[in-house]
Design a protein that fits this description.
305 residues; 2 domains; two-stranded antiparallel sheet; alpha/beta; eight-stranded mixed beta sheet; Rossmann fold; 54% helix; binds guanosine-5'-diphosphate; Four Helix Bundle (Hemerythrin (Met), subunit A)
Length: 305
């Protein structure tokens, strides 16, 4: 317990007198316009409806009844609170450092499998990951297990020779699982650190494809499963994410073509609905155009559009 002097009492009275002038309590009405504008911005950034509503609800719960200085704009506080809540959603599942995971696994070879619908940038991304692993002194081999798409095999062969890594490929129509198996055996015999398996992505609704992927999974027993999603695909990308989760499952996402996309709200839906981290983003067509996903960067991007 403290004993207040007369002087302290006076100062306290003075302070609460100014508090009364300075502070205002936020009411729901104060927020209506700004909430509506935010709803529009979030939906326009490809954040799903469900996630948008959840974020706005949290925001209202956080702000209604809060005292704010009259001089501060309610809108500014809203934006800052929103940034905080989006960052929280995004950082919750962001603990996957791939290099660290490979090093600490004690597994040799460490097997990574890549899923994704044709055209999302899967082949290019595999090449970028090979490049990144090489820079971290991890040796690699690629298994071209999409044996039905000649173009994918050719592209991988091109990247493998440019990046000077081994590629195991099968004849057209060969068993994709056996290509993966051969690559893993080769890696074991040559002491290679990481095997990267490309897979077919001809149509994500194709049930034959799901069976094929399941077979590859059973035989390759990957240590890490990465789904490649095209950030330009908007809500379709989320649909693909759900499909792959329901059928084969994956650990993390790489979001491609973020350089060409002003939005990318898909990362929020992935984090919130599917609890999946985005580990890297593709930001161009060169091998070095793969950067770690940064929630801060992402939040800025949502608000700059
Ligand atoms: P796949 O069919 O999934 O193997 O897709 P590809 O790897 O062939 O990529 C399809 C197209 O997207 C190619 O023209 C790539 O150069 C391009 N691409 C892939 N990733 C990115 C990226 O991060 N940014 C941009 N701008 N283009 C990309």
């Amino acid at each position: 317990m403290s004993v207040q002097t007369g002087q302290e009492n006076k100062q306290e009275n003075k302070r609460s007198f100014f508090d009364f002038l300075k502070y205002k309590t936020i009411k729901e009405d104060d927020l209506n316009d700004v909430i509506e504008e935010l709803r529009f911005q979030l939906l326009d950034s490809d954040v799903s409806y469900e996630v948008t509503e959840k974020i706005l609800e949290d925001l209202k719960n956080n702000l209604i009844g809060k005292k704010v200085s009259r001089r501060e704009e309610v809108e500014e506080i809203v934006i800052n609170t929103l940034k905080k809540s989006i960052t929280e959603i995004l950082t919750k599942n962001q603990k996957t450092d791939l290099i660290e995971k490979i090093r600490s696994s004690g597994k040799k070879p460490f097997v990574i499998i890549f899923f994704g619908v044709n055209g999302v940038g899967k082949t290019t991304t595999i090449a970028k990951v090979v490049n990144m692993l090489k820079k971290n002194n991890l040796s690699t081999i690629i298994a071209a297990s999409d044996t039905f798409r000649a173009a994918a095999q050719e592209q991988l062969a091109y990247h493998a020779s440019k990046l000077e890594v081994q590629l195991i490929r099968g004849k057209y129509g060969a068993d994709p699982a056996s290509v993966a198996f051969d690559a893993i055996s080769f890696a074991k015999s040559r002491n290679i650190d990481v095997v990267l398996i490309d897979t077919a992505g001809r149509m994500h609704i194709d049930s034959d494809l799901v069976e094929e992927l399941k077979r590859v999974l059973r035989i390759a027993k990957p240590d890490f499963r990465i789904l490649i999603l095209d950030s330009l695909a908007g809500s379709d990308a989320l649909e693909q994410a759900r499909h792959f989760e329901n059928n084969v499952g994956y650990d993390a996402v790489i979001l491609t073509k973020v350089d060409a996309d002003a939005k990318g709200g898909i990362a929020l839906s992935l984090a919130y609905e599917l609890k999946k981290p985005v580990v890297y983003m593709g930001v161009g067509q060169n091998y070095d155009d793969l950067i770690p996903f940064s929630p801060d960067w992402f939040v800025e991007r949502i608000f700059s559009s």
